[in-house]
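Tokens for chain A. Residues wanted.
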């Protein structure tokens, strides 16, 4: 029976020439003595894979994959196997690898440049000085030589509010798509940058909007919230496998060599010693076990699909916990930043316009999509309070007086309505994060 595998992700080398603070790879490996995947092992693996499938995209990552000492030999191996390849790169040494890409351009599926900002200042703040300029030079070279390229963005809470700027950069510079993946926390403190469920819901709405309105191709990697218990990613669908720089077959590139990890149950075989066929049996066992665990977790979670925890809602965070890569205690930090405090303030999204009278029967129209959301009496009242710049404590007070309910009940109603309005991307917490959506201020237009 032909295999379902259509993607082989290869961590070509462990070292890197940059030092991004959020990087998921083990720091010792990134900046230690280089270990590169032997060309001969890749050749053998691709030959074995070829006997199972005609079509495979070999995705090179790392470390920085273009630093492999025989990058040319690596790409030749893919070409000779009749497969295609993609490369995820920081672009720093692109001018050196360009001739190799040109030589094997027939087999090239995609070059993905990782970017952390749509401006030099934002990108360089995470990737180091000079980095944005290097990526932009690489992009110019791709355009000159007609090589297709895309951008890959690891989305944290700061980058999430700059989505429109990333999309604009992709459009202006001729990228064929924007690939978005969520940040995976490599330390307890890094959980502060992870989007909560509500923030992800709002973010995914912005993605949907940009896809429709801007015509920018945007793809989402596995890992954003998805409340289905069924597998949604290549590895857990049995469609993608991972080979690390040591020649070990592993479940998924997100998991291998994860910074600060405590387990490596995701690694099933050393292909120097074990035939691919035997390794694949180990992968299948791992996949079945993980999929069962996840189904089980959903069936026993005493939560409705609307309220499942961030861990369960995010397939990759769930996997990272299950394989001992991240500390579950970190989720408390996401709960803390998502919690609504009495002193919090909110602002109305720049694309939302309320219509109708104050209070009952009010609705809100999203100017960009035309979507209309009816507000119940609580949300209608809160809308006015938010516009007037009131704190959550003041909103609770207003609700207590208007509806003659006790304070605890009013607080529950206020929190519930604020969460819903946030997840609909109609309001956002006023935490000083700069927004990049370039639309007029609706507070000037609201009917009152
Ligand atoms: C590990 S890097 C290797 C390839 C290359 N060095 C680069 O940066 O493009 C592959 C991708 O992983 C992303 N990445 C790094 N750390 C991450 C993290 N903690 N969570 C999610 N993605 C991360 C990077 O932004 C990059 O797009
Ligand atoms: S994200 Fe890529 S460029 Fe940055 S340190 Fe990690 S491997 Fe290097
Ligand atoms: S970490 Fe788990 S859920 Fe995420 S892509 Fe990898 S195998 Fe799939």
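Reply:
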């Amino acid at each position: 029976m032909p295999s379902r595998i259509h993607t082989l992700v290869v961590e070509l080398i462990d070292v890197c020439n940059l030092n991004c603070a959020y990087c998921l790879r083990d720091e010792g490996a990134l900046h230690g003595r280089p270990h590169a995947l032997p060309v001969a092992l890749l050749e053998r693996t691709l030959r074995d894979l070829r006997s199972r499938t005609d079509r495979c995209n070999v995705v090179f990552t790392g470390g920085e994959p273009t630093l492999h000492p025989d990058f040319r030999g690596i790409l030749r191996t893919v070409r000779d196997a009749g497969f295609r390849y993609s490369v995820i790169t920081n672009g720093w040494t692109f001018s050196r690898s360009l001739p190799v890409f040109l030589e094997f351009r027939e087999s090239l599926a995609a070059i993905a440049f990782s970017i952390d900002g749509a401006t030099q200042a934002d990108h360089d703040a995470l990737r180091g000085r000079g980095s944005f300029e290097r990526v932009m030079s690489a992009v110019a070279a791709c355009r000159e030589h007609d090589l297709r390229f895309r951008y890959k963005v690891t989305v944290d809470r700061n980058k999430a509010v700059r989505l429109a700027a990333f999309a604009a950069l992709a459009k202006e510079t001729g990228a064929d798509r924007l690939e978005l993946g969520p940040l995976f926390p490599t330390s307890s403190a890094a959980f502060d940058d992870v989007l909560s469920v509500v923030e992800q819901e709002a973010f995914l709405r912005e993605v949907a909007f940009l896809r429709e309105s801007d015509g920018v191709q945007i793809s989402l990697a596995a890992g954003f919230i998805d409340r289905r218990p069924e597998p949604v990613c290549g590895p857990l669908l049995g469609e993608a496998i991972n080979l690390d720089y040591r020649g070990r077959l592993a479940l998924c590139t997100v998991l291998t060599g994860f910074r600060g990890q405590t387990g490596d149950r995701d690694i099933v075989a050393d292909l120097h010693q074990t035939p691919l066929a035997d390794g694949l049996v180990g992968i299948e066992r791992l996949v079945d076990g993980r999929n069962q665990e996840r189904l089980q977790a959903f069936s026993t979670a005493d939560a409705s699909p609307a309220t499942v925890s961030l861990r369960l809602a995010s397939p990759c965070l769930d996997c990272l916990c299950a394989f001992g890569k991240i500390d579950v205690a970190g989720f408390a930090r996401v709960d803390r930043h998502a919690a609504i405090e009495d002193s919090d303030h909110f602002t109305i999204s720049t694309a939302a316009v309320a219509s109708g009278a104050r209070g009952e029967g009010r609705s809100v129209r999203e100017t960009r999509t035309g979507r209309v959301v009816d507000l119940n009496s609580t949300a209608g009242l809160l809308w006015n309070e938010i516009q007037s710049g009131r704190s959550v404590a003041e909103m609770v007070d207003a609700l207590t007086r208007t509806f003659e309910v006790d304070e605890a009940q009013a607080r529950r109603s206020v929190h519930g309505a604020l969460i819903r309005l946030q997840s609909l991307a109609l309001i956002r917490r006023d935490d000083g994060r700069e927004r990049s959506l370039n639309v007029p201020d609706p507070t000037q237009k609201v009917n009152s």
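The mean pLDDT is 91. The CA atoms of residues 41 and 97 lie 22 Å apart.
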